[in-house]
Amino acid sequence: MNILFIGDIYGRTGRNLLKDNLIKIIDEYKIDFTIANGENSAGGVGITKEIYEDLTSYGIDVVTLGNHAWAQKKIFDFIDYADRLVRPANYPTGTPGKPYVIVEVKGRKIAVINMCGRVFMECLECPFRKIDSILKEIEGKADIKIMDFHAEATSEKIAMGWYLDGRITAVLGTHTHVQTADERILPKGTGYITDVGMTGPINSVLGVKTDIIIKKFLTSLPGRFEAAEDSGQINGVILEINEKNFVNDIKRLKVI
User: Fold this and answer.
1) Which of 8, 45, 89, 253 has the greatest number of C-beta atoms within 10 Å?
2) Which CATH number characterizes residue 22's domain?
3) Is 68 labeled as catalytic in the residue annotation?
4) Residue of 68, 150, 175, 177 marked catalytic
């Protein structure tokens, strides 16, 4: 089985790239299941119902979120009803939305789990202890387990990979918007990459117009971030999953 994970979709550029190219990528790489991080898909912050529905219509099976999950206030109107939308699991008990979803594909049940890091980010529940409780909860209910670890610190992401090696299928880092070159299969079969990268405007600073960010660094003054809109790139990884539900191969995907 081949699973495609698409890195953080940023704004209109990222959405249009997927609208125009995703089906071709799915066909070319014989993809069976597609996951994408969509927490920056609405102008760079958050997601809307309309955008969620657009993304799933393009061929994305599950959309994950992150620390900007709540940036679009109308998300509370639909998040509980969106059956393929996953918010970080380590928000407090009672937070709207699903901490994971389980989808059956070709006779195998795929669990997609979303989690935020805590280093240099908002302090949520411990992601290490939270994933332990989720794995107990879904034991026997899922064959393949994919975790989107939306975190800032490289060390926290790498530690999570080693912590879960042999316990889940893959730990895939998101949030920093720069694709890393450390994709690998850990000793017990878990696929890992520190950051999948960004699907959005390439001539930007992590998706934002360059002049806005340069001015911020020069002046230290706050400013309104605006998504850049020009030529873009699709970043992702393709996982080849074996019969034991671990990773035979992990390849970075970069389409410009």
Assistant:
1) 8
2) 3.60.21.10
3) yes
4) 68
